[in-house]
Design a protein that fits this description.
Blueprint lengths: L2 H15 L6 E2 L8 H8 L1 H9 L2 E2 H12 L5 H16 L4 H11 L12 H21 L20 H15 L4 H7 L8 H15 L6 H6 L4 H12 L6 H29 L6 H22 L1
Antiparallel strand pairs: 1-2
Helix pairs in contact: 2-3, 4-5, 5-7, 8-9, 8-10, 8-12, 8-13, 10-12, 13-14
């Protein structure tokens, strides 16, 4: 069951699969072939290996997981990447979906949205099949039919800098504990930053390696990836004061946004006894208190 033997078994099995034949693969002890195993340990040992034979796809996927460190995000992402051609070779869509479901927990996005990884893996398989079809017709691969449009930053520079500091902080071993004490995902302003912050937090709590490219790839929307990448590329230095100021900034942003919303509602229907007016007064008091505290600091 060395790498050469595995590749040979894979090529032979793929030929048989093309003729709709069910293929099972028996794993032999390292350094053994059927003849040597039969001579050395006899028919019962060979029969035991045959009895434990598994479908070709399961064999190949299990072999992938033996090759990489499954305790790291990088290792799991390598398995998912190399699994795409294996999944694409499965003729039955139902069987392919079954294996996709089994692989889904390896994807970093599984921690925030368990149903999303299946969609992402399936999309990669479909893309691989399209390229294989074009290759068989000796055509040049066409450009992606859904190119990533240039993302227009919808938030002002202050939000971008604050989110940048908090995202870079949670990725930093030095500052992660502080960031998690002073901020949470919902404090951030953009959906991109919220999703990435929560993804990093869950991956860290699960003991996974925080590999930035793998975490970014877990954001399925290219626009969100681009927005997060923009924030991570800022190189302003981090320190405790910068991080605390950034957390305060995004938290005040939410209060101001809510204040503006309530103000518009009160302009249409004002009542000093309404819940909206009471919340409006509370927000004014909190923002005033925040401003005084910032001046003292």
């Amino acid at each position: 069951s060395d790498s050469a033997g595995i590749e040979a078994a894979k090529r032979a099995a793929e030929i048989l699969q093309q003729h709709n034949m069910e293929v099972l693969v028996a794993r032999l002890p390292d350094g053994e072939d059927p003849d040597s195993l039969l001579r050395r340990l006899g028919a019962p040992a060979l029969q035991e290996c045959i009895d434990k034979a598994e479908p070709l796809t399961a064999f190949l996927l299990h072999n992938l997981q033996r090759r990489y460190d499954m305790q790291t995000v990088e290792g799991r992402m390598k398995v998912l990447k190399e699994a795409i051609p294996i999944l694409a070779a499965i003729p039955s869509g139902i069987e392919r979906d079954r294996y996709i479901t089994q692989l889904a927990p390896l994807h970093p996005a599984y921690f925030t949205n368990p149903s999303k990884p299946e969609e992402l893996i399936r999309r990669e398989v479909e893309r691989f099949l399209r390229y294989k079809e074009m290759e068989s017709k000796k055509e040049q691969p066409v450009q992606d039919t859904h190119p990533v449009a240039e993302v227009e930053e919808p938030f002002p520079p202050g939000v971008l800098r604050a989110e940048s500091a908090l995202l870079r902080g949670i990725l930093s071993e030095e500052w992660r504990t502080l960031v998690l004490e002073i901020a949470q995902a919902d404090d951030l302003v953009s959906d991109a930053a919220k999703q990435f912050f929560e993804l990093v937090r869950r991956a860290w709590e699960a003991g996974m390696e925080l590999h930035r490219p793998s975490l970014l790839s877990a954001l399925s929307d290219p626009r969100l990836r681009e927005m997060v990448s923009t924030r991570l590329q800022l190189e302003e230095p981090l320190n405790e004061q910068v991080l605390r100021d950034s957390a305060s900034f995004v938290q005040r942003w939410h209060k101001r946004t809510r204040q503006v919303q309530i103000s518009a509602q009160l302009a249409q229907d004002f009542s000093p006894d309404s819940v909206n007016y009471q919340e409006y007064q509370r927000l004014i008091a909190e923002l005033h208190s925040d401003a005084q505290r910032n001046r003292r600091e």
